[in-house]
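Weekend entry, working from home. Most of the wet-lab plans are on hold until the incubator is repaired, so I used the time to fold the two sequences that have been sitting in the queue since the last round of cloning. Logging both here for the record. First:
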Amino acid sequence: MNNVNYQKVCENYLKSLPQRTADVIERRFGLKTGERETLEAIGQSYGITRERVRQIEREGFSKIRPEIRKNKEIFSHFKQVIDSFGGLKKEQDLLDVLGQGKYQNQVFFLLTNEDSFKRVAEDDNFHAFWTTTKDSISQAKKVINSTINRFKKEKKTFSLEELEKSNKDVFASYIGISKEIQKNPEGKYGLKNWLEINPKGIKDKAYLVLKKKQEPLHFTKIAFLIEEMPFSNQKKVHTATVHNELIKDNRFILVGRGLYALKEWGYETGVVKDIILKSLKQAKRPLTKDEIVDKVLEQRFVKENTVLLNLQNREYFVRNEKGRYNIREA
């Protein structure tokens, strides 16, 4: 039933009503304008109370509901679609599917006039959704709780295919009603407070860029890649802003001239001199020039001469008779 004109279907039901009654219902459900109006707004336009508007609406439904319910073909189709998603579907997603992208309000109007479809209102944990069976609600909550526990245990995002291989449409419909589980623009699911799902600001987005690339990047490249991320409404990213933000965040390590890496990759904090000092302390013995250069270049993207120049700092380093370097004692 992909070609049903639900606008005409609704108009046919309303044409038997008095003009004002039909207008009230049309405006309450946004059947003409697409915008649903409140009882208060409609009442003000007619100079009547909101309770009188509610009464008119109720009287109108009492006249047309028996006729609407006779349309077994439409409601059979609605039920078939909802059942294909495991017996429930998030309201907005269901209206998009049934409404063919243009009849969402009309579908909502029809659903509210058939008792076999139950609407569960939005609350702190769940989006509003429609269902055909009570069993589907309890089953959905089991799936949601199990998935949340998996996220908390494994601490990473998953694609739908990784979460469920057999009944993907049903699984997606179940977790789709949860406010705790969300999907990012790359199609990965996780918990709503994870930065991989809802990154906040430049630093979180820079973290995601580096995490994806798995290699140190110059801050100008990071700025460019942030703009290319699929997250919506990303404004122009200034390179200086990226540099200033990352240098203040201990998740990032400046490993070269403008190059940033993630600390979790094993990079140490500090300048070249600090890396040399840490290397000598860890070795607990004097090191050769080449050994020190190798250790520093594991941590920093600098020229060999930069390491050698730091070794000439007699305030911190001393060279013994065998040409090896150690920390100068205080």
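Second, folded right after the first finished:
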Amino acid sequence: MPPGPLPSQPLSGDSDAFRCEVVREEAGAARVRIGGALDIAAVPVLEATVGELREAGVQHVILDLSELDFMDSTGLRCILERDAEARQDGVSLSLVAGPPAVQRVFELTGTAARLPFIAG
């Protein structure tokens, strides 16, 4: 995978559409900047993106939630599953916190302390 940003993958033209952009960070690391709504319609895009990074040999994936407007339980489940897969396969996964409405989902479900959040 070449360094720098890869094209975003919008699901539709509206402002709440899910956006997913991969930025190569350093050797073996990539940041996935996601924005809009992480819901049942967007989960397959995020799953595929993270899967492609892992297949490309990326050893550290950073999920940047700072531009998310909304996340439902399917989005939370997707993140928890990506975290579990990473742990199982020896890949490092970190998250950059989202805005208060998104972080509230983690807090209400008791998963905020369990996930590896880092500074943006």
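Plan for Monday: verify the second prediction. The helical segments are 43-55, 73-89, 100-109.
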